[in-house]
Amino acid sequence: MTRTELQDQLNALLKAVKPAIPDDESGQTIIELFDSTLSALAEGKEYIFLAEDLLIRMITFYPHLTPVIPRELLWAVGGSCLGFMEDSEIDAFSAQNDDQGVQH
User: Fold this and answer.
1) What is the pLDDT of residues 25-44, one digit of tens each?
2) Domain range annotation of the chain
3) How far, rounded to the nearest angstrom, does the alpha carbon of residue 3 sit from its chain's CA centroid?
């Protein structure tokens, strides 16, 4: 997934979940992480750890929003996000990358 695709996925995710995120400290933290990650992507800076932290916190604090998170996004961010994917999903993404000659 390219930076632009990742940025588009995160923008779409933010739009989808923002109404469901409470206006409290944890909600503000999630919104700040979205902003930081999107800024890093736009500025060509390192973003992967910010994105990983964002997705893990979203799943931890708002598990009811997990179905809204695209599986492709979890795969693209990798790291601890892979722990939220089924083995069959990981195998499918891995096979797809192998077919395309992409390394994860």
Assistant:
1) 999 999 999 999 999 999 99
2) 3-100
3) 12
> Rounded distance, CA 17 to CA 19, Å?
6
pLDDT at 64: 94
Cα radius of gyration rounded to whole Å, the chain = 14
The two structure tokens encoding residue 31: 């919104």
Q: What pLDDT, on the 0 to 100 scale, is given for residue 40?
A: 97
Rounded to two decimals, the pTM is 0.87
d(C-alpha 97, C-alpha 104), whole Å: 8
Q: Where do we find the tokens 């060509």?
A: 44
In whole angstroms, give the CA distance from residue 81 to residue 51. 10
The dihedrals phi and psi of 67, each to the nearest 5 degrees, come to: -60, -20
Question: CB count, 10 Å around CB of 60?
Answer: 11
Count CA atoms within 13 Å of residue 95 on its CB side: 6
